[in-house]
Amino acid sequence: MSQPDKIMTYLNQNGGQITAKTVTSMDISPRVLRNMYAQGQLERLAPGVYIDPLEFGDDIAALQYRLSRGVFFKDTALFLYGMIDRTPSTYEMNFPLPYAYSTKTDEPIKIYRQKKDLYDIGITTTKTPGGNLVKLYNVERTLCDILRKRDRSDAETIKQAMNSYAKRKEKNLGRLMAYARIFKVEKEISAYMGVLL
Predict the structure, then answer these.
(1) Does domain 3-57 have CATH number 2.60.40?
(2) What is the average per-residue pLDDT within 63-89?
(3) Bridge partner list, 112
(4) Tell me, what's the pLDDT at 87?
(5) How many Å separate Cα 77 from the centre of its chain?
């Protein structure tokens, strides 16, 4: 089997993506990856990360690879948790200040930046609908974020998210109230939880 064939076999068995590090561990030169990219057989997501454009098809994971410091935020996080019933038309990501990001203008993404001490609170991971692991904020942090005055989510999204949280088995009300104090949405969180729980 030729080296490009070995790479394509790996891609077919591993969700359509491969890294230069993986290729090296297969005793294949990373140059083969670069040649396949130059010939249009692969797309490059990030330095050293390549995908089969026909196989991958996971926009959210692709954004995470391109913008590795970003954390999925607000309505995008709600979607990944299955707490809202619509796919966001624009993905929201949060970055630490003073991080300088660069993104293609045609990507459906809204960028936020936040002081590092706030940015770091509640980061976790989950799988996308395509089965790839991405970073996002935990559910309690997400509920606080959608209520914040600046760039607040719409009323229907908030209502749906709060109802969904009230029905969740794995909820942490202590953490929710601690975050609500930090993000200055304590009154609103208390009002929603008082009605729903």
Answers:
(1) no
(2) 91
(3) 94
(4) 84
(5) 7
**How far is Cα of residue 79 from the mean position of the Cα atoms in its chain?**
10
Full 3-state SS string of the chain: CCHHHHHHHHHHHCCCEEEHHHHHHCCCCHHHHHHHHHCCCCEEEECCEEECCCCCCCHHHHHHHHCCCCEECHHHHHHHCCCCCCCCCCEEEEEECCCCCCCCCCCCEEEEEECHHHHCCCEEEEECCCCCEEEEECHHHHHHHHHCCCCCCCHHHHHHHHHHHHHCCCCCHHHHHHHHHHCCCHHHHHHHHHHHC
**Token pair of 162 as six digits:** 């709060």
b/e for 102-140, b at 16 or more Cβ within 10 A? eeeeeeebebbebeeeebebbeeebebeeebebbbbbbb
pLDDT at residue number 119? 97
The token pair at 115 is 């002081």
Domain boundaries, the chain: 3-57, 60-196
Q: How far apart are CA 180 and CA 186, in angstroms?
A: 5
- What digits encode the pLDDT tens for the residues 136-186? 999 999 999 999 987 888 999 999 999 999 999 999 999 999 999 999 999
Answer positive or negative: Cα dihedral of 145, 147, 150, 152. Answer: positive
**Four-point Cα dihedral 85, 125, 60, 84, nearest 10:** 10
Query: Nearest 5°: CA angle at 99, between 96 and 100?
Result: 145
